[in-house]
Amino acid sequence: MILCLDVGNTQIYAGLFDKDKMVLSFRKNSKNGASSDETGLFLRTAIRENGFDPAKVTKIAICSVVPDVIYSLRGACMKYFNINPFILQAGVKTGLKIKYHNPVEVGADRIANSIAATHLYPQRDLILVDLGTATTFCVVTKNKDYCGGSIIAGLRLCMEALESKTAKLPSVEIVAMHEAVGRTTVESLQSGLYYGHLGAIRELVQRITRESFHGEKPLIIGTGGFAHLFEKEKIFDEIVPDLVLKGMLIALQLNS
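Below the sequence we write its predicted structure tokens.
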């Protein structure tokens, strides 16, 4: 089995694959700088408690947007799985042509998403919208050119900023709203977060389509923790929650 670990700014998102099929996924908070022992024990326990044998993990792939975590995570893989993990980073095979001025700047999660999307939807122009701590937009052509994209603050980040930088605004649950006009402070916050983000996504997708694809409609793929929140709005042609993990698996196979 293969274990894929997507290290984000707030969570480690793990997927366990049996050949090409994901059989288990789970998450761990990544904010608190856990030691290699804590992380290794957590990974083994999570796998075992879900009915799988950690000893059957033969390969591990890591994709991280938090550089400081990689050293500890590599140590956890070596000590608790006896595996030197594959790190998705600059210089590995991706199958993409990176058009960034400095390709090293592209986040590993954005590369993983793009690898998966070009395999799932070959010969298609793509806009990938990943709704996590940040909401990222990636532009990939049918020829596998990674052209770049946009980054905005994610929903939870916006909510935390409002809570921490104002005197009276509370933390609220992020939910799909049915009306723009809130009748309480909580509803007003929820409405602003939801419809503000929805508007930003629509505007950026529209502009990217005009600029990059000359008005011809690309396939719009939503992914990340908040993608399903906007399902009723029909802004995505497809929602693939585990896109980043699938991309890591493909990258591992490309570099084996």
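The chain has two domains: 2-87, 97-247.
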